[in-house]
Amino acid sequence: MTSTPGTSQLRRRTQEHYNRYPFGFDQEEILQEKLEHRVSGDAIRALKDPKALVMDVGCGACRIARLVRRTTKARTVSVDLSMESLRAARKHESGPLVNGDNLFLPFPDDVADLVISNGVIHHTPDARASFMELARITKPGGTLIVSVYNRRSWYYYAYVYVGGVIRWLRGVIGDRGLKLTVFPFFHLATVGLLCAITRRWVRLPLKTSWNLFHDQFTTPQCTFHTFEEIAGWASKAGMTCQETRCEAANQLATLRLEKEIRT
Question: pTM of the full predicted structure?
Answer without folding.
Answer: 0.94
